[in-house]
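RETRY 2/3 - previous attempt timed out on the joint model. Re-submitting the same 798-residue input unchanged.
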Amino acid sequence: MTDADTALVLARAQFAFTVSFHFIFPSFSIGLASYLAVLEGLWLKTGRSEYLDLFRYWVKIFAVAFAMGVVSGIVMSYQFGTNWSVFSDKAGPVVGPLMAYEVLTAFFLEAGFLGVMLFGTAKVGKGLHFGATLMVAVGTFISAFWILSVNSWMQTPQGFTTNADGQFVPAGSWLPIIFNPSFPYRLVHTVIAAYLTTALAVGGVGAWHLLKGRATPQVRRMFSMAMWMAALVAPVQLLVGDQHGLNTLEHQPAKVMAMEGHYEDHPDGAPLVLFGIPDDEAATVHAAIEIPKLSSLILRHDPNAPLKGLKSLPKADRPPARIIFWSFRIMVGLGLLMIALGMWSLVARLAGRLYDWRWMHRLALALGPAGFVAVIAGWVTTEVGRQPWVIYGQLRTADAVSPIAAPGVGGSLIAFVLIYFSVFGAGSWYILRLMAAPPEPGEPDPRATPRMAAPQAAQRGEG
Amino acid sequence: MGVDFDLTVVWAMIIAFAVTMYVVMDGFDLGIGILFPFFRVGRERDAAMNAIAPVWDGNETWLVLGGGGLMAAFPLAYAIILPALYTPLIAMLLGLVFRGVAFEFRWRDPGHRALWDAAFCAGSIVATLAQGVTLGALLQGVEISGRAYAGGWWDWLSPFSLLTGAALLISYALLGAGWLVWKTEGRVHDDARRFARLLLPAMLVAVLAVSAATPFLDGKYYERWFVAPGLFVTVPMPLLVAFCALMAWRGIGGGRDEQPFFWTLGLFACTLAGLAISFWPDVIPGRVTIWEAAAPARSQLFMLVGTAVMVPLILAYTGWSYWVFRGKVGEHGYH
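RETRY 2/3 succeeded.
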């Protein structure tokens, strides 16, 4: 490999590493912010203390996750320039304004109201505090809206033209850029994924305490809420994901070919490859287990519909199927398990045994982190599936990289790996420790935790 | 010199505004981080941390607006500056990681509080030094070929960039001390006053050194400072600086608690105005003008609509948040 090739690989590794790590936190905080708003709203409406206990329990976890999301997110806003400067120069006039809107309409909103949400219980009225919580929740959603619009534009670019400097510039209205073809699907699929991730994490914590014999009203309440969410949303996610896939087939067929493990053209019905070992060099799937015609039935709703394979594309234009084939199966497999958990919880609920069936609790506990894994797997599928393009069909990843020598990119990658694993490892450990303790009746206000350790401050924090 | 008052100029002013907001608002957060080891372990450090805990995240967001705005309005500048300052910028980001998580982690893990306090301080120092070095490296000039950075990844390092790094370290520390004089009471307040008394002369020396060195860098700074219209700012500047410094000094010695902070802000305003003279009308001094780097009008206009609507709103609710946490912070959080 030449130095430039090495630098490219290192820059890609760095982006993949920093964005995957970052993505874990917002996929939790988007759902958790909404969950907190629901809990606080229910407490204000019903006056039942277990909702307040749960709010105070989860807001501490939210604060830690949010801090890690913020600091890893700032890194992302600079990664575009440090490592992908050609992309920034060329695509800046199109994606830059969308990201600026994200800062203006989302980041400031979240950050501005977070202080009141975390530290303001004793300083503002209940209504205003609830308003602050709502603003934080809305901010996380608006943030997802803009950044997914940017990502979707890179997947399915439209509404642009190129100028004399080779820059992508808006051709006319901004609406086709923002609402590009894959955006609505990606937005719905990703936001639901964030809600599901949070539901599974909350459900996992609830299941843990149920298994430990702590079936307090608070634990029951959060487990029940989480299982409702899983039962209702996981099947919806399957349908949304299917629609997203059909949209991808229309706009990025190569990605679907790689997901399906289709190298050959199938003029009269393509099989569904359940498992196998894709080999990009030989352009074949070893040890494939296939169901004839099923892929055509799923993707075209016709068992005999023709589907093209990766061999129909020049080798330089093919995404690496060996990664996408598996990341896609991990995502779908976990999604099916989530649906199974949701159904099981419904049966248990009907039988009046929601808090008693230990094997269901064990499954819920095992699936506690499943949302995070599925989100990352889905992200890998869509991002690696876009390769070898950074802007699909328009700008190759290899042509978008910064002119930084390999030692520079490698050195910073090592620094990111070491620091992220230690710092975010510690943060995740703190979150797990908070989760290991059950929510208590009269759960203390975050204001009253060590931050303001004196007992009189805790009492003033009430109400 | 006539100025075409066009969209690009407006955007240059918006970016300058975002950078100014960042420097002022995260400046005192970082300054408190820099001074952190000099406060006694326990209640004094808790109070210093609590003085900024509810607002640091919003303050830091101005950095994202500065970076994101630069990419959107001046993509060529973003694409040249970030690779040119690769190492200091990555160091800054990693410093901000440590600084940011320490706000939560030090309360979550009392057993390792000393460790997270050290991370808070070291992160603040690294981020500040990196920002100062970035400024110095930009002023001394970056090598460009075509539409890309053409230098190496150590070009930023020079005696001048180290000088600007040290100057910013002192300046943020003074701003942080000023904030603590205003927002705290008791021992931490008295300590902050003591630190400010040492830091104010140090900042003046540092700013003087940077100002003396700048006109002799390989740029057009000499012209910009000593030829109209820059001259009209250059001539009264020493008087303004001297006045702010004198008032800050009196404020530190006694008087109302908010005075040291606001007069230090006056000093920041003077130095930032000086920097504006040095840069104008370039976005990369001596190399790329704001018009050369500008995104097309359609991009700038689209964002301008959002900025015109959102920035006043942001300032309003940020102001509200500061109002909620007004007054002195006690050792257990805001009263």
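The longest helix of chain B spans residues 7-35. Closing ticket.
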